[in-house]
Amino acid sequence: MRPPAAHGFTAVDQQPRPAEFIQVLETLDDHPFYAAYKARLRELLHARPGGRFLDVGAGTGAAALAMTEEHGSSVVAIDHSATMAGHAHARGLGSVTVADAHHLPFRDASFDGAWADRVLQHVADPEQVLTEMLRVIRPGGRIALADPDYDTQVLDIADQDLARRVLRFRADVQLRHGTLAHRYAGLLSRHGLRDVNTEARTIVVRDPREADNCLGLRTWAHTAAEHGHLTRTEAEQFTGQFDEAVRSGRFTYAVTFFLTAATASPTSRS
Fold first, then answer.
1. Which of 4, 195, 223, 229 has fewest C-beta within 10 Å?
2. What is the distance, to the nearest Å, from the Cα of residue 91 to the centroid of all Cα atoms in its chain?
3. pTM surpassing 0.85?
């Protein structure tokens, strides 16, 4: 058994067609579920006119631009991908930096808040990224995190054991930290933050063409087989049952996102 290649979002610039990842993010941004939770995440930062915020793993820059338009705050965006950063700059975001979130190139206490949206699931060391985010926000500043937690996945196809095996592959192998999001509240509390608040939002997909073809769910079994986690026969069975569930109208997939926000201590640094 060999481990699968890193998820594409861990190394966008090294992919054969990196621009396709821009399209993935833009497709998701247009989906009502994603648009709604992203707007709520910005609200949780308590943004205000004149505030200065950091978007960690900003992707296309859409959320950073929305923050400036909705709240009159200034936003600095960083992304590990030059492809993403270049696109964000081209669409009008003024302050964009290619940087590693594990080593943020900013002074201590230089932002009123920071957020990371669907980022910590991909990074090598979430604790280090969080420590860096806390370092660069001022005492009393806000931090907000959002990720899906793939421990919460469900899929209605005929063979539920096979469905669970494919979903576990997604949760435990394809992603570095696919089951971390429900633990963000505890993580922030251990770092001494106050007013820790967690909200759960579940996306329920009945049409697998939604949400960028349900994040490629139909392909997950064959990816698992390529890396020895399923047999090829099992992968074919999964695909057949997936298609039958769509034809018969039984197809249902759901996963829960956790939005977690907190306030940095006014007197001490993590």
1. 195
2. 21
3. yes
